[in-house]
Amino acid sequence: MSALELGLALWVAVALAYRVVALRSLARQCVPAHPGAPPRAALVALRPLRGAGAATAECLESLLLAAEAGGARVVVGVEDPADPAAALAREACAARPGGRCEARIGRGPAGANRKVANLVQMAAGRKADVWLLTDGDVRVPPDYVAHATAPFAAPDVGLATGPYRSVPGRSLASRLDALLTNAHFLPSVCVASRFEGVHFALGANIAVRGEALERAGGFEALLDLPADDYALAQRVERAGYRLAWVPLLVDHRLEDEGWRAALRRHVRWARAARSVRPRGYAGQISVQGALPVLALAALDAAAMGPFLALPLAWWGGVGALLWRERLRLGLRARDLPWIPLVDLLAAAVWAAGLVGRPQPPDA
Q1: Would you say residue 98 has pLDDT above 90?
Q2: Model confidence over 141-157: pLDDT tens digits?
Q3: Residue 241 is part of which domain span?
Q4: Sign of the alpha-carbon torsion through 74, 80, 81, 87
Q5: DSSP 3-state assignment of 194?
Q6: Are residues 59 and 99 in the same domain?
Q7: Ordered DSSP codes for 125-161
Q8: Do residues 71 and 146 both lie within one domain?
Q9: pLDDT > 80? residue 90
């Protein structure tokens, strides 16, 4: 075995060990305990919307039902009155009289991050003991409020965040999009929360103590930042609070938006991650197992050596590991043949994330 082959084999071993640890971390970090009753506090759930996709109404309804069960008020925000989401927000809140749901339609303050600008205009004039922040394409379970607020029983907790899995639409692009998130991003987040502790936030699902948000500078401090979720977590931590993990999986509903839009979103996420943790992001090459596996197979192809069968063994093993967590990952048997392509897409997205300027979300 040459030095090159030895190095590639070591790379494969590291990547495989990581996959095993990551999926074990998934099993450990996504098991919610019984949360008990929600706290007797002023709870306000903010739901920013931009556009009305096939699942937007369903996702909003899930939040409204969870808020009713957990005693939270809901504010639905849309910046553009002509946006179809504005009519959806008004209708949803009109169906719930009594002030438990409010639609706020109007442009937020100037800033590159329009999602944060929407949060600013939604929160204006309101006070909350705990703010609950979920994206417009997130579907939550009925006991979401109780789970999301449970960590705040400890007075030193300023922010809580939890994992999400992607639920695809009908298209192949949407299915691969979901697999990319669920087979790579979700386990990696669980590894980080398990071994490094929680020093970040996932924008799809955040709860933040009102007092901590004020001490962190409010939403206004995030108006020009691309990675607003990470920045919020860092500011809350610097304000003297602890961050907590909520082991409740929520669903990120994907629209059938096509290949280009899906890949653009993943690359945007990758660039944002690189911008806040450049060394850690660069180190992710060590867990891109598809690259050394294919390189070893290519080196042995001419000689018909033993590494020629390595891709089959690699993806057979990875498929078996993923299948053990199929319920948490939303994995189906017909997804397994796509795992090699998904791994290559993950490597391509990682490489694309190494260059380019991070961009904030549109809404």
Answers
A1: no
A2: 999 999 999 999 999 99
A3: 33-163+202-255
A4: negative
A5: helix
A6: yes
A7: T---SEEEEE-TTEE--TTHHHHHHGGGGSTTEEEEE
A8: yes
A9: yes
Query: Does residue 235 surpass a pLDDT of 60?
Result: yes
CA distance 217 to 132: 17
The verdict on 104 and 157 lying in the same domain is yes
Compute the distance between CA of residue 44 and CA of residue 172 in angstroms, rounded to an integer.
37
- Cβ proximity of 149 and 43 under 8 Å: yes
Helix (H) or strand (E) holding 74: strand 73-78
* Count: domains in the chain: 2
pLDDT beyond 90 at 308? no
* Same-domain status, 118 and 178: no
CA atoms within 13 A on the CB side of 38: 24
- Decide: pTM greater than 0.90: yes
297, 326: one domain: yes
CATH number of the CATH domain containing 234: 3.90.550.10
Residue 284: what are its φ and ψ, rounded to 5°? -65, -15
Do both 85 and 137 map to the same domain? Answer: yes
